[in-house]
Amino acid sequence: MTPLEFLKDALPVDVNNRLHYSNTRIDQFWTTLTFAQSLDGKIAGINGQQIILSGKESMFMTHWMRSMHDAILVGINTVINDNPQLNTRHLPSRDEGYPQPLPVILDTTLRIPLDCKLIKNAVTGIGRFPLVLCAQGSESLSLRKAELESLGVTVIPVASKEHGRIPLLATINVLQQHGIRSLMIEGGQTVISSCLSSPNVALIDRIIITVAPVFIGEKGLAVTNDSSGKAKKLQLAVTGALGSDIVASYEVPSGSHNEE
User: Fold this and answer.
1) Which pTM does this prediction carry?
2) What is the C-alpha separation between 148 and 154, in angstroms, rounded?
3) Cis omega (within 30 of 0) on the bond before 101?
4) Separation of alpha carbons 56 and 244, rounded Å
5) For residues 39 and 61, what is the distance between their CA atoms, to the nearest angstrom?
């Protein structure tokens, strides 16, 4: 199985390898949650230190998946810890290139570094400027917001919930207003935890998990910070092997998204 063959089974894609769907959790908006983890359920090392978990083949799969979505979302901790580029640079070279997803960053207090790769790439013309969602109503952020906007970054204040987090549904509503119709969510832990919690999990159309053949240990960063101990049921759709990694696609059963 190749990375593209797996995705054609796991996602509703057309002949141009773009998402083509009619049945979604939110009208005309598709959301995929994806992440790589170790065998013991860790996504990073101690204190969130980046560890490359995906092998070459599953990395290709991730970049193909990025090209299929309009936007790609991560939290600010991922930007600070990993300094990602969130593009499709690992795909095979071709004359027409590949669609590049719009980077979307959840950053309530605008901590995004001005010299991060996302901004530097966009300034030099080899990437798209990120769309940053911050907390609404904070006058202290006005100078930072203006500084980011002067570089070309779009900053949108959004009403946040308790603990200062921006709701997933509010995020999707903003993206819809900007013409985005599909979203790939890559992490990190806070974002994944939010997506897998009720009621947010009911907004997810597909969950794709890569499991790498490695143990990180108890001090590694777990997939979620949920300590409730309550099970969340998913329905296996497709599974396969990409190199030494196992990849699986899951659906959230209708009517069973509540924690039990």
Assistant:
1) 0.94
2) 8
3) no
4) 9
5) 19
